[in-house]
């Protein structure tokens, strides 16, 4: 003969069959926490029905899934923000080109022209014309006869002026290379720290997921056992 006795639920106050009675001390901790969050006076000696417990079980699973999706979205936003910061670091090296003063721009132009085949060929043509005009046209009695003292003076002046200008450009280029190397180091360090951070987040997420999946499996097993108990009764 079936037992028709009933009990009163501690959270809804409604009567339920005694076969559906679940005491607080037998409820899993995460789910018990959800119940106590809505009903602070609920304790281990209070009882609720299986149907009411299933509502909180479903709520627990829904909260878990929502939390995991939110954590993944926050991680993606963090990575995207870090990539934007990297872009600002790299672009700052190129922006230094716009901060050159007039002297630095002139030094760079002179260094670029002095180290090109255009300068070499032009200078060879100039020297050839200079020497040829004095030797063959003016028969070595022109404005700069052999041994071409004026030409030697011009060459010495060009070398004396060109050398420090090229050194200025080289020093600025070395400073730029040092700054670029410093920025590269900063980018590499930032990338390494981000990779470590992502690894830590993934490890934490995996561990958290494993724990939560175990909890969900326990909840599902409890629900199946309750169903089997009701079938047997």
TrEMBL record:
The yes or no answer to whether the keyword Membrane is present is yes
- Which Pfam families would you find in this protein's record? DUF1003 (PF06210)
InterPro entries (alphabetical): DUF1003
Q: Which controlled-vocabulary keywords does the entry list? A: Membrane, Transmembrane, Transmembrane helix
**Which positions are tagged coiled coil?**
none
Q: Please list every transmembrane segment annotated in the UniProt record, as residue ranges.
A: 117-139, 145-168
- Domain of life of the organism encoding this protein: Bacteria
* Keyword field contains Iron: no
The protein's name is: DUF1003 domain-containing protein
